[in-house]
Amino acid sequence: MSAGAELRRKKPARRATYKDVLDAPAHMVAEIVRGALHTQPRPAVRHAIAGSSLGIEIGGPFQRGRGGPGGWWIVDEPELHFGEDILVPDLAGWLRERMLEPPDEAYLTLAPDWVCEILSPSTRKFDLEEKRPIYAREGVGYLWFVDPAARTLEAFALEDSAWTPAGAAREDEPVSLPPFEAVAFPLGALWP
Questions:
Q1: Distances (CA, A) of 76 to 34, 115, 150
Q2: Which of 39, 86, 88, 97 is 20 to 30 A distant from 77 in Cα terms?
Q3: pLDDT tens digits along 39-79
Q4: CB proximity list for 2: less than 8 A, separation 6 or greater
Q5: Alpha carbon 131 to chain centroid distance?
Q6: What share of the chain is helix, strand, coil (3-state, %, to 5)?
Q7: What whole-number distance in Å separates Cα of residue 77 and Cα of residue 93?
Q8: CA 153, 159, 161 angle in degrees (round to 5)?
């Protein structure tokens, strides 16, 4: 029997389910992409500081309306259910006109208007190659990638189902990028 015939006869792997996410160890972030369970350890401290700091910088003016327009819900590590795919971005935001009240469930099915992934060596490829197309498919309007090691932020806007560059910042440059261009903050506020 040829190797190809033997491969075709093997039973396909079981598709991961939400139960697999719930059964993952508490110290791991569990996600499902195209039926496969992906687990990663909780983020390193520099990664977590960058995400927390970004939430502080945009949360005041855009969620609370302090010195800015308000009108957003900004959430750390929300669990997003998109059909069989389950993603956990570092941060996500919903315009309040689309999500009037946050749900009581532990997850959301409404696609965010904005997502931010904090890149790390262990998740970079997964964030860029696996999760980015799902965010486009689900109609997320804006996607940011923050890289604490390179001290950069790249912003993208969804246009005709494709990501187009919407701006970038490095080191301590001011950040005034869509959808949060109404209030600038220094990118250096994200670095310890």
A1: 23, 10, 22
A2: 97
A3: 999 889 999 999 999 999 999 999 999 999 999 999 999 99
A4: none
A5: 8
A6: 25, 30, 40
A7: 11
A8: 105
Average pLDDT of the chain to the nearest whole number: 93
SS3 168: strand
How many Å apart are CA 119 and CA 100, to the nearest integer?
30
The partner residues of 118 in beta bridges, in order of sequence, read 146
Task: Give the dihedral sign, CA 93/130/42/177.
Answer: negative
Residue type, 33: V
Please tell me the distance from the alpha carbon of residue 103 to that of residue 94, in angstroms, as a whole number: 12
Query: What residues pair up with 30 in beta bridges, in sequence order?
Result: 39
Distance in angstroms (rounded) separating the CA atoms of residues 163 and 145: 12
CB count within 10 Å of CB 7 equals 8
Q: Tokens 């969804």 label which residue? A: 158
| Whole-number Å distance between alpha carbons of 65 and 85 | 33
Residue 57: which of 43, 45, 44, 67 has the closest Cα? 67
Separation between Cα atoms, residue 177 and residue 103, nearest integer Å: 28
Look-up of token digits 């494709």: 162
Please choose, from the candidates 60, 63, 119, the residue with its C-alpha nearest in 3D space to the C-alpha of residue 94: 63
Show Cβ contacts of residue 150 under 8 Å, excluding neighbours closer than 6 positions: 170
> pLDDT for 34-45, tens place per residue?
999 999 998 899
